[in-house]
Amino acid sequence: MPKYALARVTSALVGLTLAAGTVGLTAGSAQAQSVGSGSLSFSGDAGDYISGGGSYSYSTDAQDGLTVSANTDNGVVSVSVTGANGDWWSLDLAAPSGQALRPGAYTDANRYPFNGTGPGLDLSGNGRGCNTLTGSFTVDDLAFGPNGYVQTLDASFEQHCEGDAAAARGEVHIHNPAPPEQLDLGVAVAVNGTAGSLNGNAAVRGTVTCNQPVDVTVSGNVTQVKKKVLIRGPFSTSVACRPGAEVTWTAQAVPTGTTPFQKGDVEVQAQASATDPNYGGTVTAGETTAVHLSRD
């Protein structure tokens, strides 16, 4: 089977639920992180298509650029190299389907991401890649943080393109600082608001809290029932949240129909959302509160 040049983009889904309340991280793409200290090296037999029978070595000490990422179920780790000399390579190590990658030996690996239910492997770059491959890899040490953060990876691998006897063999070593904390948000709704006598809008307010400086969007709906008429209106506002303080938000809910909000009780559903500055996903927190509107 012929070999061919390969260009590939690898993506991963992010989905993580935080422990407290209704806070969560929505689906998205895991961000590749720059490697603090690491290396990728490999060499090949004569006739190996990927290495061309040569030896390659890259490291952060040599000013080569390395990035690493994992999907949020910790099943796949991807390492990319941008060499100071212009070379570029990528290495994927994948556990069998439904499993997290952990220290141990993985045999009978096939080309990731077409590895089916078994382990996956792929070393490619500099315009070269396998159409099909067989191989194996051993993970000696591996430590994950949240949301695809890779703190430590020490592994070795062997790859055969198209079933050839010739192989590329190599090692990867990644050592990063402890993972940064995830963004945590809180939102509260004040139990008092006002119904505008001129515009019929409902003015509502509350506070947001955060453990990292972020811009927070607070949005939601105000719902009221008066004389069997359902009155509802959306609201949205943004505030700059800073750790260590409750930051006040205010918003105007505009009724969607012709009936204005009136003095009395309403239900306010509010959601705060912001982008995690370390991991790139959207974190949300929600609150539903009974609020009494007075006439302004």
SSE layout and pairing:
Blueprint (H helix, E strand, L loop, with lengths): L12 E5 L6 E6 L3 E2 L2 E8 L10 E5 L5 E6 L5 E7 L5 E7 L9 E8 L8 E6 L7 E12 L5 E12 L6 E8 L9 E5 L2 E4 L6 E9 L3 E13 L2 E13 L5 E7 L10 E12 L6 E14 L1
Parallel strand pairs: 9-10, 15-21
Antiparallel strand pairs: 1-2, 2-21, 3-6, 4-5, 4-13, 6-7, 7-8, 8-10, 9-11, 11-12, 12-13, 14-16, 15-16, 16-19, 17-18, 17-20, 20-21
Note down, in words, how this protein is organized.
This protein has 296 residues and is mostly beta strands. It has 2 domains: 163 residues, no CATH class; 111 residues, Immunoglobulin-like. Helices cover 0% and strands 57% of the residues. The protein has no helices and 21 strands. It has an 11-stranded mixed β-sheet with strand order 3-6-7-8-10-9-11-12-13-4-5, with no helix packed on it. Strands 1, 2, 14, 15, 16, 17, 18, 19, 20 and 21 form a 10-stranded mixed β-sheet that branches.
Properties at a glance:
296 residues; Immunoglobulin-like; 2 domains; eleven-stranded mixed β-sheet; 21 strands; 57% strand
